[in-house]
Prior knowledge:
43% of the residues lie in helices and 20% in strands. By secondary structure, the chain is α/β, with parallel strands linked by helices.
Amino acid sequence: MVFAIAKELQMRKSEFKDEIVETIYFGGGTPSVLTTAEIEFLISEVYKNYTVAENPEITLEANPDDLSSERIIELAKSPINRLSIGIQSFFEDDLVMMNRAHNSAEAKKCLEEATQYFDNISLDLIYGIPGMSNEKWKQNIEMALSFGIPHISSYALTVEPKTALNKLIQTGKIAKPNDESAQEHFAILVKTLEANNFIHYELSNFGKANYFSKNNSAYWLGKKYLGIGPSAHSYDGVSRSWNVSNNSLYLKSIQEENLPNEIEILSITDRYNEYIMTGLRTIWGVSLDRIETEFGREYLNYLQKQAQKFINDDLLFIDNGILKPTQKGKFLTDGIASDLFYLNLEV
Length: 347
């Protein structure tokens, strides 16, 4: 698999020949199962085949149970300069309910050690967990802050079908996630992190100055990205492609020197909708000038008409030609965006 990924990097270099790689991200699944030598090999393949910025952000996603003291020290000596750690919660009962492989003690120990070797660390926290009081949620946030982490990603609990959690909810052993509770948790999260000098730069992401995720910001700002490996998605501004999710089919295809992906050319409407969806989630908002320049007056008129009711309800506002959600509208951003989508235009 590692050699196949290296081969795909070589096969696709022409797609990025005019681009400078600003960020390399090992994520999706469990990239921390790779040895440090394998990670270094893949990074060297990127440098060999692409033009890389002087100080790229190179992130590894990992869970606390993957990050032993030895592993953290090894990674600190490698080109990896950012860790994204899936903590989820510092409470044992939450971790058991979410079927996490690590426990609370491992989560704390991992952060104690990682912060000695890495300055740039992000951690994930989940809110809206059934039965989690506002006080318990505050304690989770305070615990995260106690480690001096400069970036926090936080998401509402979603229940996927065919999971142990879904079964527990269906059998009545655990209550369903509650939207009202999740909204309260979100408000506490925003207030607490902003009071601690975090900038709420994207709906689910908070970073101190100079610690925004360059990788994630690229998605929200509509930059090109290249996804390598099974299931990986890519975007070049006009089309989206995704690799086959089956490992065996992926390997077979690469061995035969065929790219194992499907491509979708995005219509103007698709691109407008994507910009609305990503722009509204960020502090950069949606530029009305860009809507008119890139998509035309018809789309601008439509957006202004659709947005007016949300402006009247104090959920959106326009500041210097930029459409953004208000503090009250932030939690509802995804639903608002879907109401601003242009669904019926054939382009």
